[in-house]
Predict the structure of Cation:proton antiporter.
Amino acid sequence: MLATIVACILLAFVMGSLARMLRLPALIGYIAAGMLIGPYLPGAVAERGMVSAMAEIGVALLLFSIGLHFRAADLLAVWRVAVPGAVAQIALAGLAGALVGQALLGLAPGISFAFGLALAISSTAVATKALEERGKLGGAAGRLALGWLVMQDLVVVFALVLLPALAGGAGGGPGGGPGGGATAMLLGLGKAALSLVAFVLLMVLVGRRALPWALTRVARGGSRELFTLAVLAAALGVAAIASSLFGVSFALGAFFAGVLLGESDLGHQAAAEATPLTRIFSAIFFVSVGLLLDFSQVGGTPLAALAATLSVILAIGGSVLALLLLLGVPARTALLVAAGLSQIGEFSFLLTEVSIRQGLLPELVRGPVLMAAIGSIIATPLLLKAADALAPAFERWLAARAARRPAATLRQAPPPVPWPLLEGHAIVVGAGRVGATVIGALRRHHLPLIVMEEDRAIAERLTAEGIPTIWGDATRPEVLAAAHPERARILILALPGALEGREVLRLARQANPAIQTVVRSHSETEAAWLEAEGGVGLVMMGEREIALGMADFAMQRLGIAASTAQATVDVLRRRHMPGVAG
């Protein structure tokens, strides 16, 4: 176990770094790492079952993190496109895959659709990771892709019930013929539908209140370690319940847990706590893909492997693009979604193994499915890059050829927030004695502000007073992003820690280089460093400000005009004053 974990993490880092040096996506390096420690190349052999289990956790945590940023309103906004589109895409891509199975693998027409179905379900982990790396996951393309992937996951749930029923019908199993197989199939589908409905109702009626309530109690205790454990317990616990009791996929259960927590004010900090583990385990998922690559299986059916790979990229990508354009989605969004979904992964492996165990498909289909998965996964980042580059020309081409007809556009409603969308606002980080004074001054003049506070009790009190407040650690990108620094005018850092202040300042400048800043400092050295940084509007150090305040008062009482006294204070504030600190 120890050797497997160390090998996965170490080689993922080495090969991922090498891939980035070659200007390739890191996931290609992760797949190569899996090939190096897999059983099909000489050298160290990893424990495949253990890596697969870690990979499943990685996919679940990735879906949980996505769910934290996803709102039910976002899903409903794209539902009219995602539901019919995903169903039609699975049918079209499944038919293309079935034709490949019939023509090159000699599969019977009926069971070849099981092979086609494995080539029609996109990888949720790959699609979301690739869109996130290009900054597209939070936009219209990301919301639509997520809705599409959720619909595909639901189809997989029913497919896992359908395949054993098909096998029973094909073999004249229970029921004594096709009629018995059809009856078993209908019973299985009905049971799956009821289980899914029961799980959703349980989450909406119980989980929607219970999960935020439990995590709020943990947060009030003030222990970051316990809160991190509570977040992971919520994600993996709900996923396990969904899988074991309701037959819903492990990853989809974690996604629902994330959506429910994301509706509360705990979502931003929960995302920050889950992100490091999500990145590690999602990298292990790609390592697990490399572990599966058996060159002997691929070499036995090279033409089928190549055709399956092309079928995935062209049939999924082409059908998604055509369906989205038909449903009125803007061309650029349609291109990005099509490129992001043009691959297969974890669910395809699952469907293939179930079909082989049930006797529907021969073992020789493993090679083409594996090759199609690895080839399309490697191609996905390149396809997204190409989609970005080709989008302007594609839009011009469509505009030139399109008839004059109204085009429906995808609603891009922002996630709901408990306060109006702010523009040109102040972000106050820290609501202690210093921050509370600043907040009071801004509120006195009805100026727009968002407060960020790590103490749960203070955050709840400010929220109760009607002050827009985000609870969480502002040094985490996911938490700071909730305050929309890209639209803010000024950042006021009232944090007691110098390192935390530096990190928040760095993140805010990444989002908005023009943001003005006021920073609290506790030492002359720290103040000097901050003042040397370009763009820091004002650095406030306690002892120095006391001295300057006393000097300002004295000058004015001795007859110096207020404006002249303030000018002197400004000059002294900018000057290095070691004597004051002493």
Remarks:
- Residues 120 and 402 are 29 Å apart (CA to CA).
